[in-house]
Amino acid sequence: MMARSLQKHVVIVGAVNAGKSTLFNSIMGSKAAIVSEVKGTTTDAVRKSIEVPGLGPVVFIDTAGFGDETALSDERLKKTRAEFDKADAFIYILNGDDESVLKELQKHKKPIIKVIMAIDRDAHAHGDAIIYRDDSSREEIFSALKKVLDTKEESLLDGLVDGKATIIMVMPQDAAAPKGRLIKAQVETLREALDKGMTSIVVGDEDLEGVRDRFTEIDLVICDSRVFKRVYDVFHERAKVTSFSVLFSKMKGDIAYFIESAKKFDSFKGDEKILIAEACTHPPINEDIGTVKIPAMLKKRFGDGLKFTFTRADDFEGIEGYDMIIHCGACMFNRAHVMSRVAKAREMGVAMTNYGITIAYLNGILDKISR
After folding, report:
1. Cβ of 2: how many Cβ atoms within 10 Å?
2. What is the per-residue pLDDT across 246-276, written as a single tens digit (0 to 9) for each?
3. Please, which residues bridge with residue 308 across strands?
4. Alpha carbon distances (Å) from 199 to 2, 190, 295
5. How many C-beta neighbours within 10 Å does residue 286 have?
6. Is the pLDDT of residue 288 over 90?
7. Exposure string over 46-80, b if 16+ CB within 10 A, otherwise e
């Protein structure tokens, strides 16, 4: 099945005991979430993918309810709200006292499908709400989702090369590379190239000149950002050059804003506060690009007075205090999640860029690479 980061995300929201988990299970066709009359049964978000005709695989997310009066209510709602940034659309369960929650959801500027659960009680029409009576009613929800969700597939390579292209992918296997496998960004790029009938040549970075001389007809070279400058110097006269991170900045985020933000490095004085945000949860190691290599490059350019903060996964609070946010390629996040972060940065007037764009800027090749 398609990676979850490429699937549309639908978050189910409502009050405690409104029927969110009942609806979630009904959509899934299985008992994926615990259903109980005890308020606050759902604590952490429960997510599961299902194939929706006309949309492909879609991630549905069951969340803890509003109006929770338990001792852990604040923590539960914090986790619920963390899911809002990931949503491409919301399903909201009407329960009589809905105004404040609906206003909160509307601030995210994403489609909201309203549902009245009538499985265990009588219900009457309520404006444009869907009345959900049994499992067969889910088709009505699927139809509503197809009307509001963009069905265009995300692409890394569209606009760069055509289906007959020959691509060299430079993937250094140093201590930062996961043992026995490729990183997600590399896998997804390979998969798309394969699906589009392109020829992919995968190499390390040990003999780049030899690779260049051996393969004379090359259309595009994609590399890990840590070897960006070296790869560019070797290949730029023969082919387009970019990095996996730059491609993901275009597919997942707002590359125009990332490039605009990177140019603000020009005004750095050397005492700026920088947030480096990593989507993955793996522990950093000695050669980690986010916690080690990029800070070292920035300190070499601007001095040791720079102040760095590092966050992982869903931690993205208090960003208004930073001069620059540098985000990873976000191959683990869906596009809605990244764009929500971009929107927050824009709203607060904080520059935001990503790993690949930053490294290209610091190496003086940002205006020369393909994107």
Report:
1. 14
2. 999 999 999 999 999 999 999 999 999 999 9
3. 274
4. 21, 10, 35
5. 9
6. no
7. bbbbbebeebeebbbbbbbbbbbeeeebeebbebb
